[in-house]
Amino acid sequence: MTPIQIRPEQVAQEMAEFAQKLGKGLSNLSNLGELESGVTPREVIYSEDKLVLYRFQSPDGKPASNRVPLLIVYALVNRPYMTDLQENRSTVRGLLEAGLDVYLIDWGYPDRADRFLTLDDYINGYLDRCVDVIRKRHKLDQINMLGICQGGAFSLCYAASHGDKVKNLVTMVTPVDFQTPDNLLAHWVRRIDVDLLVDTLGNVPGEILNWTFLTLKPFQLMSQKYMDMLDALKDEKTAKNFMLMEKWIFDSPDQAGEAFRQFVKEFFQKNGLITGGIKIGPHEIALRNVTMPVLNVYAAQDHLVPPDASRALRMHVGSDDYDELTFDGGHIGIYVSGKAQRQIPPAIGAWLAARC
Amino acid sequence: MTTDWTDWFKTWEAFPATPAANPWNATLDQWWRSFQHNRHDRPFEVMERVVSQGRSFFDMCQQLASAGSQSEGTTEWLNTVDQTLERMKQAFPTSGAAPGSGFWQLPLDNWQRAVSAMSGMPGDYLAAFPDAEAENWRLDTQDRLDRFLGMPGIGYTRELQEQYQTLMRLVIDYQQALEKYTAANAEMGRLSLDRLQQRLRARSTDTHEPISSVRELYNLWVECSEEVYGEYVIKEDYAVVHGDLVNALMAVKSQSGKIMDEIAGMFNMPTRGEMDTVHSRFQDSRRAAARLRRELESMREEVLGAGGAKLMEDNAAMKAAQKELLARLSSTERMLGELDERVDAVSSGRKSAAAKKKGGKGKDPKKAKKAANRAKKKND
Using a CB-CB distance cutoff of 8 angstroms, which residues of chain B are in contact with residue A201? Predict the structure, then answer.
């Protein structure tokens, strides 16, 4: 049996469909207008430099059933609106519906004047001040924290050094062991002269990060995705979904040079969360000092943060109350897929409610 | 392959087997051009990517399908497809950009886009030199070039001259790193075709349904490419090639920056080095200001909070103690005054008796001094 049996009329039909979808897709794209993301109503609670701390308003106006507020700490790479992309694809909305009072830090877009911001400035400065603002507003000593991806690593560092201010910690797709054998990103980064990179570029351009992320799976992310896109563009709604995601993927802020240098060296190259030796400002970071309850959420098909990189937390965290939640999907799907919307926010809400 | 298929592809044989002459692609291009007329807005940019990948999609199919059109039985078909894939593999040079389909150039294209986006120069600026020629030229002239670039500078511009020589050496290093990177990509391309070949052979013997659509074939192609890529790039050798590429580009940019700073300095313009110094000091000051603000806030809380209340309490207690002390003092003074008066009364009685006796009357100087001291203390 010949393995390829494509009839000419089949080819002609596929080509006609390709052209037809292209035309339709073009028409739908032209009608999309501006792509707006960040859909849940929110108010600005605090701002400093380029950072803005938001508090989300519950869509039904109900007060939160959990009196301890939750602060979402997003990564510096990419933009936090991924957690609130669309009405039906919003982790934030899911958390509000789960009875939580949700705050989120938007780190903003650093420019050259921010080049000398360090991890100390981010974690013991900006993050700590946001935590204090929320504690003061709610007259509480401790709040709940949800760290996402790199923001999860920041949250771990914060919880290890300011444990008296964190009641419960949730980490989501968070790298802990940066040197698992399947961590392609870490494997490449070890050969990069990060001092030369930062000294040369100052801030690290978002384009370099985009290049790196796309290069992890170039044929899927730069070819197959655009072929799949033709199906996504069949109507305006799915076209909008696709384009919002596309916008987010390429919306990569530059990285403040010194913080980037420190993060790559201490976390990627020295694997400091596991081996120790990370010092952020006056604090030595040791995961055994993370003693509050911890829920570690990871994605089983995560190509950016492999599951083993996240699961390593279990072996190193100091908490006696440690749980894991596995999501059967990828690094992005965990925020936006329908399955994730049904599973993740309610599970976080229930876990936190049990630890009020 | 069906007779229809064979007949249909026979009509293609007049076209040379190059991607540009692929009739599917030609049709697609013509259709796209009719749409594209002078449009450069966002939807068109996005769709351009789709069309670009569509070209790869139909190009791959054309090459494999036309191979099949020339054979009748399965064995012959497989042999013909093998030969086609071999020819495609041969087309990959050992260095330089991957040929033919844009699909194979995706990692390189991605790099060039990133270089273009983060620097003022086009990412593919070295493409102006044909790879083979550039390589031969470099090998032929390496020794002379090394000597030329190693010549000491002279005169007033000696330092700048040396900076340019260093830049030239670094550009050459980058070119070599880029060649190794493209060679690695070409090798991955060949390995991917091997994998595709194996998959197609396996499909001819196992129970899989035959591939019956262009899309299915394309998906298999992507799957094979991604698999091979994943296995290849996790190796240490590739990490070195990848790291060298980034490091070599950074070295070029760093040296270019130094030269730009030199030139800016010559024209009394601010330089990047100066700006960095300012930003660094500025950040130090902001850090110090934040620390002081925090200390101030903590002191304010101390004053207004529990600590402050305690101070106030202490203060109130002190005031009460002082009041009590003053009261006691004043009471003591009153008593002293009364005592003085009684003493005065007593002594004045004695004195008047004595005066009467002595025939005279006057004040005791010791007693007067004592009274003056008491009055002074009271005033204090």
Answer: 118, 250, 253
